[in-house]
Design a protein that fits this description.
With about 425 residues, chain A is mostly helical. Chain A has helices spanning about 1-15, 35-60, 65-80, 85-105, 110-145, 150-160, 165-180, 190-195, 200-225, 230-250, 255-275, 285-310, 325, 330-340, 350-360, 365-390, 405-425, and strands at about 25, 30. Chain A has a two-stranded antiparallel ribbon with strand order 1-2. In chain D, helix 1 runs antiparallel to helix 2 (about 25-45). Classes of the chains: A mainly alpha (about 425), B mainly alpha (about 100), C mainly alpha (about 475), D mainly alpha (about 160), E mainly alpha (about 650).
């Protein structure tokens, strides 16, 4: 419980100094509205996962304290990369986040799948961190400094005729962060790692890890590479569209609910990736809004998985049949989450997608928007399959579970977030201008 | 004075050798070493650039890179030990259960 | 202000009902829908036709993006709200009282009504789209949980098909939103004023909008979801689908397609009219040989709607008057006919026309009422169908003659299959029913008698309704000239 | 001066290739140590003397020892490399070269005449200069990296410790 | 509103039968048969009295035409079409016929339908029919006329399929309604053209506009008149759309008498007469009307020669007489056409009711081959049937002679070939009528009917009145040269502007000569048949049973028109509908959508396989992806 208290304190502090904008430690790290809001988001994620972990781990009779420690280290890494000014801090932060994620992925030692997940994550992770290093080196070569504001000034002042190396450096950074965020050609690790590692870790990785990586990605682009060159923009769009289609298509046939959620996480990355080519004034707002809705929806989706794990080993979708009869509240929450992930109006997911499409179309990437629309249509198949399974069919008896207070609290909060943001999106838009 | 391209090409070659090693070898130990090699190639480039820009922040950066690679190796080997305990071999081909 | 109450009242009550499933939900829901109807009547009563948009309410909803909760009503919107408010009590009352999970059922119905009224009164592009899709979810749940047959596959296909259209519309709306002057806004007037679109962009946008509405209406090539959904859905769901939701597509085309993209509409008008008329003839020919009652009614509804679509895209004053009136007439007729189909099915638990017969012997009063409904559907003078059909065919005639003749064909075929239906079910000697069942008991009469009265009344004295719509149609035509 | 650079460069490349193609892990560890020495030599050439020393100590000393230790501990010295079908190896070699070529091509297109940031001074490699920048501008990263080490340690303990936890 | 008493009467006129329908319809089952009869006949009686009152008022010159506007119905173009009624001499004549003959038939059917389960329903439908017929006749604009038009079609559907337990009757009813509908479509298109060219649908506005526009034979006028005529053909069973009338005999006989002889079928003639202004502006259409009228008259007459069912013979005779009326209209002699309508209503109703009496007596036996020798058993029926036959054959003094002769006179004036054909038609009419008389009444008794059902007075009275009218009806329109043609004088204000046909009249001599010539010919035919009817009859009976000679086979099978319609129209549509549903709808359109869904699912399956699980492949693909991006960058970047 101390942990939770600590986290709440940290949450309070971040919100306390909301107004001030200055950077500390020889402008290594700055506390502008962007970094504070995203840090608050990350803290919230970790808070939720810490809240849910005791009950989950007691069943596995694994001591969750050191796992909690790793989560806090990952949180520290996340906060660094979300509010970095110096590229060095970005590199170290990403390394800290990755290393703790490797360990978390492998935390359930006896389970072979978890071992395999950590192995895959480690090998691919370290290969692509060297890409990041190489990219930073090239950018440093051209601009001569690691400070993002200096690079940004240099780049905008140089206008079109900046040295070609700069773009190559930028591309390598995109590749590295693309890997971290599980974008298309570099997404191969994500499904296996999310599926292999224990459900609690998958929840943590897919929410905190992904949003931190996206925060860093957008922060770097907003500060350093602001007028995103058109051909780099197109490359990222291609990556985004490929991710959407691969994520959505592979999720169609998944029998295991957990692996389906893994692929849907990859698909959601595709949508979020559209923010990068359209980085500019509104993009921070869009990312934050989508981030919140994505986290809220994942929390609900994964909490059902966690509750299921209490009773059955199998993670197949058919476990959910007839859930609505057993406890309607949980079924309603999952329905709202699925609707939000699919992007159906009354839920926040719809406005998030709409906001994202407006941004992308505004930046001139309308074909990408059309593809995004088609892929979201494909996603309807499996999201609604869950809803159908819950509401039709006779209920298995063991679903008669009692939901522990921690779970019902977190589900309730995310439900409120999903519905409130869906009906009154005005609260959040314009926050990060 | 050695022009900067040479360092650049050298580090790219080392980087690609490391990448090829990662692709070719099946044994985890060799794999970790090739990863180390890739990181070092980037270090080399950084040091060359710091000489070129005569600004030593790049060298500090190399310090941290070394530090990071050390941490990575330790975690990597820990993973290797864990895997070895479950399957007594360091071949990565054995780990294929998570698919489709 | 009234319009917002019209939306919020059923919405709140619906949501409350979804979670409670006490026995008394049924009459509570009925009370709400009746209150809704009185409110709508009052709105109609206090509506001044010439004064354009009324009951306008414009609150900022998402100020950062220039999206407002902008709601208002003009002639056409009001008539459709009246139709929804009128039909809802009948649909609710016609639900058998032994349905499972009544709370959720009535809740979803009321949420559905709120979304429908929202669609008919939204003046803000985004709000229109939100209501448009919100109307999809309740009907999907209704068909899924209370339907018969393999509801899962059919409803999923229906949902995805309609969503495909509406998502294309979303992309088009976003594109238009970005064309508006800098502090972008979605409001209707601003979108009407967008003029810097050249011909082929308008062409693309036209097709994006047209696809969404054509799938919803449905117009010919995009109708494959309709027969299956109407058959597997519960009758009340089919009433909703064919009675009111279908009008969403037509209203959407009138409000958002024709005034916003006049050049696009003008270039693609012949194609749209040809498709609709082809669809009408196609459906009425198929309906001839159908022996499943509900599938036959589905095709007949599609035929009527094909003519409405043709009238809509002929862009003539008479055509549009016909569209508005026929929407009302068709709404009432299909609801009545599907209810009849439901009664017949429940009594004989078969929908196969060849196995039915002799109902006129068993219950003459019921057969008379059914006959009036059939007359309405066949566009017999002195019924509402005739007036709508007359205007539509006249509008089509002014547009071009061959289309009008094809339209006329559907009137003849319509007579053929509707009478065939009437004779196969009503006449002939009773085959399957051993005892003499009462087809139209007291509860059925409460639905059928008012509906038939309305069919005859609006057929004999349609003037008030036509006056309500005339100024709005006038204004629409001016906007359609580019 | 140039000859030294080229000698060291060539030896670095050769030993790197040897690391990849060595039969048994111990041989490749030794070749890797040789590569680290050549790179340290390069550092000296780029008058980053302190860095070269640290590099040798950290890499050759600490990391390689760790590798040898693990190899010995789990006696992995047996070269039990499953010979992969030739076409697979061919693909991988070709893949590596293609990656190298594309990166060279991408870089080749750029002109190299970007300007150095501040004036030339060859004493940037000295300890007191490094110390100044390390503990002034980069102090925060220093602290975070300490956190990183802590995390790595705990991680290694969690994963590698025997026993059920 | 200072409504004159006439206007109130006019307004009330159509709603009396509607009230009768409502009363019988709603509470009919509770009443006894007599009360139903009283209500049914009473309402028609009242409307008959009202129309007599209106007729007398009109006669006494208190008003030329009376008009009343109840409420406005549909706004069209600029004006708005009202639910308004109008009575002028033309509609008054029709009014008298409808209500008069209607009343008699109502009385008759009280006795005829005695004991039938749907007694109340029958009377309700009859009253509804009269209501729609009145609406049709009294309408002052095309739309209300169209409403009445379809209304009568509906009632004929209901009444033909009255005994709905019999499948073939239902099919006949449906066929009648659909065929009427085909005609109505033409009428509707004609109305659209009228609104399109003249901007309104009210008769007076349209006619004044047409007259002022002038210019005979221009395209729109011809199109309008042709379309209206197409509608009239549908309703009055002319050549292309007549096959429904013989099948309509499935209904009870009073229905056939009222609807398919006296009133409904004459609606087409009333329409052409009402729009005489338009038709006279389009001589081409008039020639078409003439041609169609003559053709139908001849065709129907030949078919009637070989029919064995008593009602079918009368049905075909009605079609042929309607052909005569249209021929009269075709030559522009509207008054002659109307006069024949009136007289035809009398004697054809008489013949039908007579046939009804025969059927009633012989326990619903309709086949002539089982009748015969009824002269002695049913003396009263025989006598009234004889009067009817003489009237229809055009024997002098009887009404048929005067009206048919006037038509022949006008056609002779206009077009001698047509006169020749019609003359032959008249002879054929006489032949088949006497054949019918002989088969039913003369000769020895065939069939096994013994105890005849007695006819009560309610059936005898109407027959007697109709017999008198068929006898005396002719004197309303004595030939022209006598100057006593009251009908011509009475209707002249309506047709005053018909300038087309006032070329010099035939000299009296020629007229008398013609008249004498036709009478002699008809008398010859009667004498020829009466003398050897026994021999002709026996030959025909065994021919009917056995093999018909080739020249008789064609007309006997009604020239296979029905079969042709079936093969050319009905079957192809049904086959098309089957094809469209099975192939086009389920296979192609639905199939396409399902296939797309299937493709997406299979793509999903393949995408799933992409994730092979082997780290080596992952790394390989990732690095390949990286180099791909570099390549793309190089291509796009430069």
């Amino acid at each position: 419980m101390a942990l939770i208290a600590g986290l709440v304190l940290a949450f309070g502090i971040t919100l306390a100094d909301w107004g001030i904008r200055e950077s500390y430690f020889h402008n290594m790290i700055s506390s502008d509205s962007y970094s504070l809001s995203f840090s608050a988001l990350l803290i919230a994620c970790t808070g939720v996962s810490l809240l849910l972990s005791p009950m989950y781990y007691n069943r596995l009779n694994l001591p969750y304290m050191d796992i909690a420690a790793m989560k806090l280290f990952a949180l520290a890494g996340g906060i660094c990369i979300v509010s970095f000014v110096n590229l060095g801090l970005l590199f170290i932060g990403i390394e800290l986040l990755s290393i703790s994620s490797f360990v978390l992925a492998g935390s359930d030692k006896r389970n072979l799948l978890s071992n395999e997940a950590s192995l895959k994550y480690f090998i691919t992770g370290s290969v692509f961190s060297s890409f990041l290093l190489f990219g930073i080196a090239l950018v440093y070569a051209v601009t001569g400094s690691f400070d993002v504001t200096v690079i940004g000034a240099f780049y905008s002042q140089a206008g079109g005729n900046i040295n070609n190396l700069f773009y190559v450096g930028m591309l390598m950074i995109i590749i590295a962060l693309g890997f971290k965020v599980a974008a298309a050609p570099f997404h191969f690790w994500a499904p296996d790692v999310y599926d292999g590692s224990p459900a609690m870790v998958t929840l943590f990785l897919s929410t905190m890890g992904k949003i931190a990586a996206f925060g860093a990605f957008l922060r770097l682009f907003n500060q350093a590479f602001l007028p995103v060159p058109y051909h780099i923009g197109i490359l990222t769009c291609i990556m985004a569209v490929a991710t959407m289609f691969i994520g959505n298509l592979s999720a169609l046939w998944q029998d295991s609910y957990k692996r389906m959620l893994a692929y849907s996480a990859v698909a959601q990355t595709g949508y979020l990736l559209l923010v990068i080519p359209a980085s500019g004034s509104m993009s921070a707002d869009v990312l934050f809004y989508n981030g919140i809705t994505y986290i809220a929806a994942s929390v609900i989706a994964f909490s059902v998985l966690l509750l299921l794990n209490q009773y059955t080993e199998s993670e197949s979708r058919s476990q959910l049949i007839g859930l609505a009869k057993q406890n309607p509240f949980l079924a309603f929450a999952v329905t709202v989450a699925m609707l939000s992930l699919a992007g159906i109006p009354p839920t926040a997911g719809f406005f998030g997608k709409y906001y994202l499409f407006t941004l992308a179309a505004g930046a001139g990437y309308t074909p990408a928007v059309v593809f995004a629309v088609i892929s979201s249509l494909i996603s309807i198949f499996f999201y609604f399959d869950i809803i159908i399974k819950m509401y039709t069919g006779e209920a298995q008896e063991q679903l008669k579970m009692v939901i522990p207070p921690a779970y019902s609290f977190s589900i309730f909060v995310s439900l409120i977030v999903l519905i409130l943001l869906g009906v009154f999106p005005g609260i959040l838009t314009g926050l990060l201008q | 004075m050695i022009p900067l391209e040479h360092y650049l090409y050298l580090s790219i070659i080392l980087f690609c050798i490391g990448a090829m090693g990662v692709l070719l070898r099946r044994n985890m130990i060799i794999l970790f070493m090739c990863i180390e090699l890739m990181l070092n190639s980037a270090n080399l480039l950084l040091v060359a650039l710091s000489k070129f820009h005569s600004d030593n922040s790049a060298q500090i950066f190399v310090f941290f890179v070394m530090l990071v690679s050390a941490a990575e190796v330790s975690v990597g080997l820990a993973i290797l030990v864990m895997l070895y305990r479950n399957k007594p071999s360091t071949q990565i081909d054995l780990w294929k259960k998570l698919k489709e | 202000m009234i319009v917002t109450i019209l939306i919020v009242l059923p919405l709140l009550f619906g949501l409350a009902a979804i979670f409670s499933n006490g026995r008394s939900v049924r009459n509570a829901a009925l009370a709400v829908s009746l209150a809704e109807f009185c409110l709508a009547l009052y709105a109609a009563y206090s509506f001044v036709p010439q004064a354009g948009m009324q009951q306008v309410l414009n609150l900022p909803w998402i100020p950062a993006l220039g999206i407002h909760y902008h709601v208002g009503v003009d002639g056409i919107g009001l008539l459709l709200i009246l139709l929804t408010a009128l039909l809802m009590p009948f649909i609710l009352y016609s639900t058998p009282d032994d349905i499972p999970k009544p709370g959720a059922y009535y809740g979803l119905m009321l949420v559905m009504q709120a979304a429908l009224i929202g669609v008919f009164s939204a003046l803000d592009g985004f709000l229109f789209y939100v209501f448009w899709e919100m109307a999809l979810i309740p009907i999907w749940f209704l068909c899924l949980l209370w339907g018969r047959g393999n509801t899962v596959a059919v409803t999923l296909k229906f949902f995805i098909y309609t969503l495909f259209g509406s998502l294309l519309m979303l992309v088009a709306l976003i594109y238009l939103y970005l064309q508006t002057p800098q502090p972008h806004s979605f409001s209707l007037e601003v979108l009407y004023a967008v003029s810097n679109l050249d011909a082929n962009v308008q062409g693309w946008l036209f097709w994006a909008f047209f696809l969404a509405f054509a799938i919803k209406i449905p117009i010919f090539p995009f109708h494959s979801w309709q027969p299956d959904t109407y058959v597997t859905a519960p009758t009340q769901g089919t009433m909703l689908l064919s009675g009111i939701m279908l009008k969403m597509g037509i209203y959407g085309a009138m409000r958002w397609l024709i005034p916003v993209l006049p050049m696009g509409v003008h270039n693609w008008m012949p194609v749209a009219v040809a498709l609709s008329v082809a669809g009408a003839v196609y459906a009425s020919v198929i309906a001839l040989q159908q022996n499943d009652l509900k599938r036959m009614l589905a095709y007949s509804s599609m035929a009527h709607v094909g003519i409405i679509g043709a009238g809509l895209f002929s862009l003539t004053a008479n055509g549009l008057t016909g569209v508005v009136f026929q929407m009302l007439a068709h709404g009432i007729n299909t609801v009545a006919l599907f209810y009849v189909a439901d009664i017949i099915e429940r009594r004989n638990n078969t929908r196969n026309l060849n196995l039915l017969g002799g109902i006129a012997l068993a219950d003459p009063r019921f057969s008379v009422l059914v006959f009036v409904c059939v007359l309405g559907a066949v566009a017999f003078p002195l019924t509402n169908g005739f007036i709508g059909e007359f205007y539509l065919l006249y509008g089509l005639f002014e547009y071009n003659l061959p289309m009008c003749i094809a339209g006329g064909l559907t009137v003849i075929l319509g007579a053929a299959y509707m009478l065939q239906f009437f004779q196969k079910t009503m006449f002939g000697n009773a085959i399957s029913t051993p005892h003499k069942p009462v087809y139209a008991g007291k509860s059925e009469l409460y639905v059928l008698v008012p509906l038939t009265a309305i069919i005859l009344l609006t057929g004999i004295y349609p003037k008030p309704l036509l006056n309500l719509a005339a100024p709005a149609i006038e204004q629409l035509l001016q906007l359609a000239q580019f | 001066m140039e000859i030294a650079f080229y000698v060291l460069a060539v030896s670095a490349i050769l030993s790197a290739l040897a690391v990849v193609f060595a039969k048994s892990p111990v041989y490749s560890v030794l070749w890797l140590i040789l590569t680290f020495f050549t790179i340290a030599g390069q550092y000296v050439l780029l008058n980053a003397q302190f860095l070269a020393a640290v590099h040798v100590i950290v890499y050759a000393g600490a990391i390689m020892v760790l590798f040898l230790f693990v190899i010995m501990l789990l006696n992995l010295n047996i070269a039990t490399e499953p010979v992969k079908p030739v076409y697979m190896r061919a693909y991988e070699i070709v893949g590596g070269c293609v990656l190298c070529l594309t990166m060279v091509a991408a870089i080749h297109t750029s002109s190299f005449e970007f300007t150095p940031v501040n004036a030339y001074d060859n004493s940037i490699g000295t300890i007191e200069k490094l110390g100044v920048t390390l503990y002034n501008n980069y102090i925060f990263i220093f602290e975070v990296s300490s956190l990183l080490f802590l995390a790595a340690m705990i991680g290694a303990v969690i994963l590698a410790k025997k026993g059920d936890i | 509103m200072n409504l004159t008493f006439a206007q109130i009467a006019l307004a009330a006129l159509p709603f009396l039968p509607l009230a009768g329908f409502a009363v019988n319809g709603l509470w009919g089952r509770r009443f006894k048969e007599t009360t139903i009869g009283i209500v049914g006949c009473g309402s028609i009686l009242l409307s008959f009295l009202l129309s007599v009152f209106l007729f007398m008022a009109n006669l006494s010159g208190s008003f030329a035409t009376v008009q009343v506007r109840l409420f406005d119905w549909i706004p069209v173009a600029n004006g708005s079409i009202g639910f308004s009624l109008m009575a002028d001499p033309l509609s008054l004549i029709m009014l008298l016929v409808i209500t008069g003959v209607g009343l008699l038939i109502h009385l008759y059917s009280v006795g005829y339908m005695h004991g039938d389960a749907g007694f109340a329903r029958f009377f309700a439908y009859l009253n509804l029919f009269i209501f729609f017929m009145l609406l049709l006749v009294l309408a002052d604009n095309f739309l209300l006329l169209f409403a009445g038009w379809e209304g009568v079609g509906l009632c004929s559907f209901l009444l033909i399929g009255f005994w709905f337990t019999n499948e073939s009757y239902n099919a006949a009813a449906k066929k009648a309604f659909v065929m009427n509908r085909i005609g109505d479509l033409g009428f509707l298109l004609g109305m659209f053209l009228i609104v399109f060219t003249y901007g309104s649908l009210n008769f007076d506005q349209v006619f004044t506009a047409a007259a002022t526009a002038g210019g005979a034979n221009n395209a729109t006028i011809i199109a309008i008149t042709l379309l209206l005529f197409w509608g009239a053909c549908g309703k009055s069973a002319q050549i292309p759309l007549y096959t429904w009338l013989p099948d309509a005999m499935a209904g009870p006989t009073p229905v056939s008498a009222l609807i398919h002889a006296a009133t409904m079928v004459t609606a087409g003639i009333y329409l052409v007469a009402r729009c005489h202004v338009l038709f006279s502006l389009a001589p081409f259409t008039l020639s078409v009307v003439l041609a169609v009228g003559v053709a139908t008259a001849l065709l129907a007459a030949t078919i009637a020669l070989f029919q064995t069912d008593i009602k079918k013979v009368l049905a075909y005779s009605t079609v042929s007489q309607l052909g005569y009326m249209f021929a009269a209209l075709g030559t522009g002699a509207y008054v002659a056409g109307l006069f024949h309508v009136v007289t035809h209503a009398f004697f054809k109703a008489l013949l039908f009711l007579g046939a009804g009496a025969v059927i009633h007596a012989l326990h619903h036996e309709q086949d002539l081959r089982n009748m015969g020798g009824l002269r002695t058993e049913l003396p009263f029926v025989y006598r009234i049937f004889l009067v009817g036959t003489l009237a229809i054959s055009g024997i002098p003094v009887f009404s048929g002679f005067f009206s048919k002769d006037e038509i022949l006179m006008n056609v002779f004036q206009h077009h001698t070939v047509a006169w020749g054909l019609l003359f032959i038609g008249a002879l054929l009419t006489t032949f088949y009528m006497f054949r019918l008389l002989a088969l039913a009444f003369w000769g020895e008794k065939r069939g096994h009917h013994a105890n005849y059902v007695p006819m009560n007075t309610t059936m005898k009275l109407p027959l007697a009145v109709l017999a008198f009218l068929s006898f005396a009806g002719g004197f309303a329109g004595l030939p022209e040269f006598t100057g006593l043609n009251w009908l011509h004088h009475y209707l002249s204000p309506v047709f005053s502007d018909v300038t087309l046909h006032n070329e010099p009249h035939l000299s009296i001599g020629v007229e008398l000569g013609l008249m004498a010539f036709t009478v002699l010919a008809i008398a010859g035919v009667i004498w020829f048949y009466a003398s050897r009817f026994k021999h002709l009859q026996t030959r025909e009976l065994n021919q009917l049973n056995g093999e018909l000679p080739w020249y008789k086979k064609l007309p006997a099978n009604k020239y296979y028109v029905d079969e042709w319609y079936n093969r050319l129209l009905v079957q192809p549509i049904n086959r098309l509908s089957d094809f469209l549903y099975r192939v086009a709808d389920t296979l192609i359109i639905d199939g396409l959508v399902n296939r797309i869904g299937g493709m997406v699912l299979s793509a999903g399956n393949r995408a799933r396989k992409l994730q092979s699980g082997d780290i080596g492949i992952y790394l390989y693909v990732m690095l390949a992806g990286a180099s791909g991006l570099f390549l793309l960058y190089v291509l796009l970047g430069s």
